[in-house]
Amino acid sequence: MLKKALHRIALGAERLLDRVPPRRNRSGADLVIDPHIGYSTAEHVIVRGRVLRGLRGSTARHEQGVLRNVWQMVSLFLTDEVAGVTVAHGRATAVTDDEGYFQLLLPVGRPPGWHDIKVTIANGGTASACPVFVPRPDARFLVISDIDDTVLHTSAYSLLRNLWTTFSGNALTRRIYPDSAALLQSLSENGRNPVFYVSSSPWNMHGFLTQVFSQAGLVRGPMFLRDLGLSETQFISAGHGSHKGSSVDALLKAHPTLPAVLVGDTGQKDASIYRDAVQRHPGRVSAVLLKVPQNGLDADDRHDLKQLRASGVHVFPASSFEGAVQQLNLWLPPP
């Protein structure tokens, strides 16, 4: 019932925004790029972002009140995205889709590490630096981590609590779990192993999450978020499980020689999602680490964990990730 009401409100807000005429004809001069962290595959360096008619948001302060926090978060969703715009880096070009998103495919060959790719908008738009991560050739494995209630306190298992946590806080007050941050730092091995993040949060939250992660000193990595995809019959473009599963599929395909360590929590049925991923990609997942909430495991969780273990995957379900790295060192081949 609440989700339907939110759907109606969001759809109405989008319609109102769509009726506002642009201040200029689509010359490109008033367009900006909201950069999303890109990544590398065996075939391409993938530069990602979204073209908008202006970026919203303001600097968060520790002492600001809840109403200010709510307005800052709401403003992230009041986007005026622009479709059909050409973006470019050198000779490579891409055209934004109906929601303003683009993926620019560049040739491989850049050295490992972080790169800022200058992307321009056709007809005079503002150029932006879009960050891209290229993994090291000596990586032992890749890490794919959930965000909500695994790394970041969200209360995603309850819609009301999730909304309150999301909209009442700001980039300086949101809480990162220390054990999760320490786990990902250890798994990264000082940047040797790439870390990727998957979340059901919309792409509108990308910049905000980047600030939260940076503020907390969390390992930097590309994110795979969701499009809101508002329509008469649809609130969000894909379900939680299908989005996370397809993101895992894409990352395993992008790194065909690397085994994966999957990190998540049982509050949103990650055990089931990761079990399905293991079945789709036999031999590719080395370990599954799951944070267990205070209410513990239910019967479905226990069944999913049993199936994961039966497939030969090492499983670490616990209320804290403390001790997980030591356990992993017993499971994974030595460096």
Automatic annotation (TrEMBL):
InterPro entries: APP1_cat, Mg2+_PAP. Residues 142-291 form the Phosphatidate phosphatase APP1 catalytic domain. GO terms for molecular function: phosphatidate phosphatase activity. This is ABC transporter ATPase. It comes from Leisingera methylohalidivorans DSM 14336. The lineage of its organism: Bacteria, Pseudomonadati, Pseudomonadota, Alphaproteobacteria, Rhodobacterales.
